[in-house]
Structure formats: structure tokens, C-alpha cells
Design a protein that fits this description.
NEUT/ALK_ceramidase_N; five-stranded mixed sheet; alpha+beta; 24% helix; globular; 7 helices; 3 domains; 404 residues; Neutral/alkaline non-lysosomal ceramidase N-terminal domain-containing protein; 23 strands
Length: 404
């Protein structure tokens, strides 16, 4: 079978054209944003193979500068894309960088900004536009991969007396690995670069639109090189990982630009080094849907939401490049678990919807923001059951082992 991979890329502005509430911090009290610190974008990668048997294999990866997708919008968009271009729902990942300074998207969250229907329509059209542009941009590419580290992250769960608080914990678990995937034409021009890392974009809670450190870094890289190359940030399992705040910030310096510059330099260091060639694999998309149980639900909740829909999408692009996307706010242990299963797996949280924080059983016992206190913001009836960690890992193993 002919495995030549073609890739098309696109970058479309999704900055709100009017003031609306931002998502990410309850302290904003659903107020409309006051300023625009940086533009927001949706960056789209379209993958295509045309085997000699006359068939066409297609898949799609979209990365947007938003907090996360709502289940409703993700379902609606994927079905529309399948109808319009024949890209199967199972082969589509709608991913979010998880910036905490983008428009509210989900109707289910509480106190994290109320979504504006007009903006949701604007966002949907922007995604459709980006897909159309990416499909029209497709051409044969080669794939290279590089690995390095970035030290901009720190665990944020720390014991304070007898309770867990949100604070930097330098002894806590992190995932400092930074991966870079380069798609280049036969002429050597980079069509697109994917960067993968795990760190919350939470450097600023100002009521200002911002793509945060990850968006800043991508724009820096795009400006340093060919402006037609699309650099997209892919968010890993960063549920309990925050950025390290610089100790000294000058009066005229912005913390986002400082951390964003450092991260861009870390990516640059990998790109300027020796990269590994990856051989294309058969383009395949698989999706599994399971239910995750909540703990004992208070009687007043009645029959409402006794379990959550946990969705995993597996996209195989090359030998050594398989995306495992999940619709939860996954803590770092799940990313490390996936990488321990195979070094070619790329864990993506904040994809195709959002059901809330998925923590470990130990974290549920410890308490703290992620397993317990966040429940209110996600509109959940109560925390998840202790059995969730084992069930999530079982589902991940099942889709990883599934023959394609």
C-alpha cells in the first residue's frame, strides 16, 4: 500500500470581534473582557493518504486557543465536517490549548464565563474555514521528530498542614518532556510544526484576551521563520501542572512574554538539533466511549448525571506518532502512563469536549482543588468514584492495543 502522507495546514483568527466573558477564572465574575493582549487562533492540520486501491484515508487535528470544547459543539462540528468532507468523526480531534483567557465555550460550566451564542457560531465558521483551507493546502510531506525538555512547569498540589492547596510543589511529579513534530515538503519547506508539552496556561488572570505563553511562543516561532509555516501547540495532561512564574519581572515586562520566550527558545533548541525521521503509517482513526461513575450522589440530585461520558480518540499518523486524545482535564500521571506504554504515543487532554478533572485514586483521597473543589465549576453532581483511575487506564490500554 502506498503510504505517502500529504498534509495541509491553516491558521485562522478566532479573536472575539466583540466583548464577551472569558473562561478560566471565577474571579472575573462573568464580566466582559476589557482588552485584547494577544490574538487567538485555530490552527488546523489535515492528513491524507491515497492508496493505490483508489481509496482515500483522511484525518484532522485542530488546535484552538480556548479553554476547552463543549461536548455539544465538538459533536456538532465533527458531524458537520464528516458530512461536508468525508472525514470520519472517529478521525477528528478538536483540541484546545487550554488558555484561561479565551471566550467561554461550555454551557455546563458554572462561574467560568457564560458562552455567547453569536461567538459560538463565529467559532464554528472559523473552524470550517480552517478545514477548507487546510484541505486545499495539502501536499506530500516527510515527517521528523525531536525531543528535549522545558523547565517552565511545576506541580501545583502541595500539602499545607493537613490539606492540599494550590501552590508550587518542586518535589511533585511533572512531565518536562517537550516534543516537536515537523512536516516538510520535498523542497524542504516546513508546512507545519506540532509542539507537545504539559503545562497550564495560567500566568495571568487579568480580564484580557490572551493566547497565554503557548500562543505567544507559537507566534514567536512563526515570526522567526517562514511566516507561512503553522506552529501549533498541543496540550498534554497538565491537570495538576502550572507554569513556573519568573522571580523577577521588570516594570515594562509581561510575565506571559517572558515564559513564552523561554518556551519558544526550548522548541528552537530542538529544531536546530538532529531530528529523527518517522515513516508514515496507515492513517487510522479509532474512538472509544465509556462511562465513568461518580461517587455517591446526594438524593436531591435525583437521576441527573450519575455518570460521565469518557471519550478517547486515537489517530495514527506515522510509526512513532499516534495521538491519544481525551475529553477530560487529565492530571500528569495519565500522560506519563501513556508514554510508558509506548514512546510513540502523544497524550492530548482537552479534546472533543470536557467532563471535568480526571485525577488519580490517591488524589481523590487527598482532596484538594482538582478532585473535589473543582466539581462545582464543572457542574458535576459530586466527585468521581475511586474506581475511575482503574477504568480510565483500562480504556486507554484497550484502545492502544486495538489492532488497526
Amino acid at each position: 500500500m502506498e503510504l505517502q502522507l500529504s498534509v495541509g495546514t491553516a491558521k485562522v483568527d478566532i479573536t472575539p470581534p466583540f466583548a464577551l466573558p472569558l473562561a478560566g477564572f471565577a474571579s472575573r465574575n462573568n464580566r466582559k473582557f476589557e482588552t485584547i493582549n494577544s490574538r487567538l487562533y485555530v490552527r488546523t492540520f489535515y492528513f491524507q493518504q491515497c492508496p493505490s486501491d483508489g481509496s482515500k484515508l483522511l484525518s484532522l487535528l485542530v488546535s484552538a486557543d480556548i479553554l476547552f470544547w463543549s461536548e455539544e459543539l465538538a459533536d456538532q462540528l465533527r458531524m458537520r465536517i464528516e458530512r461536508q468532507w468525508g472525514i470520519a468523526v472517529d478521525a477528528i480531534i478538536l483540541h484546545a490549548t487550554h488558555t484561561h483567557s479565551g471566550p467561554a465555550i461550555s454551557m455546563r460550566t458554572v462561574g467560568l464565563g457564560e458562552p455567547d451564542p453569536e461567538y459560538l457560531a463565529f467559532l464554528e465558521q472559523a473552524v470550517i474555514q480552517s478545514v477548507e483551507q487546510a484541505i486545499g493546502d495539502a501536499e506530500p510531506v516527510s515527517i521528523q521528530m525531536g525531543k528535549g525538555v522545558s523547565e517552565i512547569s511545576v506541580n501545583r498540589r502541595k500539602w499545607d498542614g493537613n490539606q492540599i492547596v494550590l501552590a508550587p510543589n518542586v518535589e511533585g511529579v511533572t512531565d518536562p518532556e517537550l516534543r516537536v513534530y515537523v512536516f516538510a515538503t520535498s523542497a524542504g519547506r516546513r508546512k507545519g510544526v506540532l509542539t507537545h508539552y504539559a503545562c497550564h496556561p495560567t500566568l495571568s488572570d487579568r480580564n484580557s484576551v490572551s493566547s497565554e505563553f503557548c500562543g505567544y511562543a507559537m507566534e514567536q516561532l512563526e515570526s522567526r521563520h517562514d511566516p507561512l509555516t503553522v506552529y501549533a501547540y498541543l496540550q498534554g495532561c497538565c491537570g495538576d501542572i502550572n507554569p513556573v512564574r519568573p522571580e523577577f519581572v521588570g516594570a515594562n515586562q509581561d510575565v506571559i512574554s517572558i515564559v513564552g520566550q523561554r518556551f519558544a527558545d526550548d522548541v528552537e533548541a530542538i529544531l536546530s538539533g538532529e531530528l529523527e525521521w518517522l515513516e508514515p503509517n496507515v492513517l487510522t482513526g479509532r474512538r472509544s466511549i465509556a462511562v465513568l461513575p461518580f461517587a455517591e450522589i446526594p438524593e436531591q440530585q435525583g437521576e441527573l448525571r450519575k455518570q460521565a461520558r469518557f471519550e478517547i480518540t486515537k489517530l495514527t499518523i506515522a510509526d512513532g506518532l499516534t495521538f491519544i486524545a481525551m475529553n477530560g482535564e487529565m492530571v500528569v500521571e495519565y500522560g506519563l502512563f501513556l508514554k510508558s506504554c509506548s514512546p510513540g504515543l502523544v497524550p492530548l487532554a482537552y479534546s472533543n469536549g470536557m467532563i471535568g478533572y480526571i485525577t488519580t485514586a490517591k488524589q481523590l483521597q487527598e482532596g484538594g482543588y482538582e478532585p473535589i473543589e473543582s466539581v462545582t465549576y464543572f457542574g458535576l453532581p459530586c466527585p468521581f468514584d475511586q474506581a475511575v483511575e482503574a477504568e480510565v487506564k483500562r480504556q486507554l490500554m484497550a484502545i492502544i492495543d486495538e489492532q488497526t
